[in-house]
Amino acid sequence: MASSILLSLPFLPPPSTSNPKPPISKLSFSLSSHSIHRKTLSIPIHFAQKPPQILRRRLIAGASVGESDDNSDEILVGEDAAAFELSSQKLTSWVYFTVILGVVLFALNFLWIDNSTGFGKNFITGIESVFQSPEVVMLSLTVIFAAVHSGLASFRNVGEKIIGERAFRVLFAGTSLPLAVSTVVYFINHRYDGIQLWQLQSVPGVHQLVWLSSFISFLFLYPSTFNLLEVAAVDKPKLHLWETGIMRITRHPQMVGQAVWCLAHTVWIGNSVAVAASIGLIGHHLFGVWNGDRRLALRYGDAFEIVKKRTSVIPFAAIIDGRQRLPKDYYKEFIRVPYIAVTAVTLGAYFAHPLMQSASFRLHW
């Protein structure tokens, strides 16, 4: 599960208080008569297990197929991102998801959040006893979360072989989630404790710019995790090789979304704690770019190399230089339930800012 810490900040004044290479298989297809040459093309592709879902779409150009015209076909070696068919959904799966979510939230509250029974406050107090500066505490919390989160992700292949995909997902989430909550809560409660470096909140247009940037950041942050049933281990978790939707814009949407969010909120808050949080979070996601590509290369081999050539880390770079040509109906790749859900959650999170601020403050972390 590709994940990130999304720190929720209300726009309010300060409160008063190494795997062996898999065998090579051949993927063969014929170009249509509309192409420049009619021929059969074979591409050697490494598949560790089953090959990713292969889709045939009419595109403006075929990135790995070579030069082609407006009517050419491209074979996608990756998966169609955010595909959701209501007819394929099972009611029992979503019942299991709801039950699991409830159990997880109860356990998280009892074992970590509740100051009378959990260890969250002791964890924060322990770090504060070592570092007196709120900037250093903020950065330390981010680094601890990043080390655990990325460390477990790096050992995913080995861990899944030992204990299985579902058990490893439980271990991964059960370890990462409490640390993420601590980091978020500490940021909300201490975001105005640092040294004020600039003050732009009263400048006309800044609030609107920060709001718009935050909204856009959500659209990048979460679409790398499309299947909630996998997140909860109801469906068997997989390391996906996505290729459509937002992946055409950037291969690492979480990094882009986190960077946009951090920069926007650092401009809004304008102090040293916000700078420390942004440095930690952006640094973590930049490492995730390298680590994510490495893990996909190990799992999918040549299939990932094809997707890598068609996409870019920097948003729109592959589109601008012609490696990624968008299909005429590209907008349809976004008119899907997961993207609509992200949009709804984004709006909901904005209006829930006062509630999140109040809940965090009551913890006194």
Describe this structure in words.
By secondary structure, the protein is mainly α. The protein contains 13 helices and 4 strands. It has helices at 91-113, 120-130, 134-154, 156-163, 165-190, 206-221, 228-231, 253-269, 272-300, 302-310, 317-320, 337-351, 353-363; strands at residues 24-30, 40-46, 55-58, 73-76. The strands form 2 sheets. The protein has a two-stranded antiparallel ribbon. It has a two-stranded antiparallel sheet with strand order 3-4. Helix 3 (134-154) packs parallel to helix 9, helix 6 (206-221) runs antiparallel to helix 8 (253-269) and helix 9 (272-300) crosses helix 10. It is globular and about 55 Å long. Residues 1-13 and 16-73 have low confidence and may be disordered. This is 15-cis-zeta-carotene isomerase, chloroplastic. GO terms for molecular function: 9,15,9'-tri-cis-zeta-carotene isomerase activity. One of its GO terms (cellular component) is chloroplast. It is a multi-pass membrane protein. Its main location: membrane.
